[in-house]
Amino acid sequence: MNGYENIEREPKLPYGGLFGESNLIKVIEQVIADPDIEYRPIDLEMLTKESAPTVRASLKALTSLGLLEKDETDRQHPVYRVNIESKRYIALTFLAYAVLDDKNGTDSMNKVIADYIESTLGEFSRPVDGHIGATNLELAIQEQKLQSISVAPTTHSFLE
Q1: Distance between CA 17 and CA 160 in Å, rounded?
Q2: pTM value?
Q3: Core-most of 56, 85, 98, 130, by most CB within 10 Å?
Q4: 79 Cβ partners below 8 Å, 6+ apart?
Q5: Do the Cβ atoms of 15 and 95 come closer than 8 Å?
Q6: Would you give the distance in Å from CA 10 to the centre of its chain?
Q7: Is residue 69 exposed (0-12), middle (13-18) or buried (19+ Cβ within 10 Å)?
C-alpha cells in the first residue's frame, strides 16, 4: 500500500478532510454543523467517540478562542454554545460552504457571503448610482482617506 489507495474516498464534511482528524477538528465539525443547539461534554464525547478529558481539553481551547461560550449555570453539567458572533465561526461556516461548492459544483458560498455582507454592512454594501461598481462603503472609506490627508507645513516659500 503506497498511501494513495484511499485518495478517492469521500472526504469527511464539512471541511472535506482539510484539517485532518484530530479531536479538536471533530468537535469543531460537530458544533459548526449544528450551531443552534447546546452541547454538553458527554454529547460531544459520544459524537466524536473521544474520551472525556480529550473533549474537555478541546472545549476549553475553543472557549478560550471565542468560538464557544460556556454556560456554567449548572456547574456540574456545563453547556456550550457556538458564539455565532465570532469571526472564526463565520469563517468556518464560509469554508464549509466552499467545500460543498467544490464537491457539488455549486455557488452556495457566494450566496451566503452576499447575505452576510448585506446583513452586516446594509446600505454600505449597495452600489451607488453614478459610481460604476462602487459601494457606499468604498465611497465612505475614500472620503475618510481624503479628509485625513493633510498638507505638511513648510518653511520654504514658493514665492522667493
Answers
A1: 71
A2: 0.66
A3: 98
A4: 38, 39, 40, 70, 71, 73
A5: yes
A6: 24
A7: middle
State residue 51's pLDDT score.
Answer: 95
Provide the 10 A C-beta neighbour count for residue 77: 11
Ranges of CATH 1.10.10.10 domains, the chain: 10-83
Distance (Å, whole) CA 79 – CA 63 = 11
pLDDT at 21: 76
Architecture of domain 10-83: Orthogonal Bundle (1.10)
Please give the grid coordinates belonging to residue 10.
469521500
Show the DSSP H helices in 19-135 as ranges: 23-33, 41-48, 52-64, 87-104, 108-121
Per-residue confidence at 78, pLDDT binned at 50, 70, 90? very high
Residues in the chain, how many? Answer: 160
Give the pLDDT mean for 89-93: 92
**3-state class (DSSP) for residue 69:** strand
